[in-house]
Predict the 3D structure of the following.
Amino acid sequence: MDLSEVIARAISLTYGLAVAGGLFGFVAYRSSWRWRRLAKAYATQEDMPAAKQWMQTVVLHGSGIAFNNYRGTVTVGVGHGGLMLRALGPVPSPFHAPLLIPFQDIAFTKRNWFLNRGVWEITTRQVPDVRLIIHSRTRDWIDAQAVAGTSRRHPAPPKRATSATWPN
């Protein structure tokens, strides 16, 4: 193999990696649009509070049946006057800024969402068309942190649970 073949293979490899990286970046950017909408209103540079849970599942959805599932890739924290969310990943994503949603901007609704029964839907005041779904155990943990005095007490859950087969 002479020098020209080595250079040709190096150029081919570089081009292939650039195309693959560009496609990966485009897919990551495109699939993060709901998170970015929340980040426009609730992005923060605060450090994660001491009260946190790693590897939680959060689902973002809007109208229709499309959603983004962050299964086991979100750290949920309680403190700084609100609920903090930070997406994890193999590398830090420039498209998933940490979020700090003040408790006064949060409304919880108990729902049945797809095959998940008894989950909690979070609606925010500034971005009401993007809703978050969390498991009941995550909501119980948030309540326990609030009772323990880690954060300001957030509004109580609604008295009557609502139910829907499909996201509204």
Observations:
- The chain is about 30% helix and 30% strand.
- The longest strand covers residues 67-79.
- The beta strands are 52-61, 67-79, 82-87, 99-102, 106-113, 116-124, 131-134.
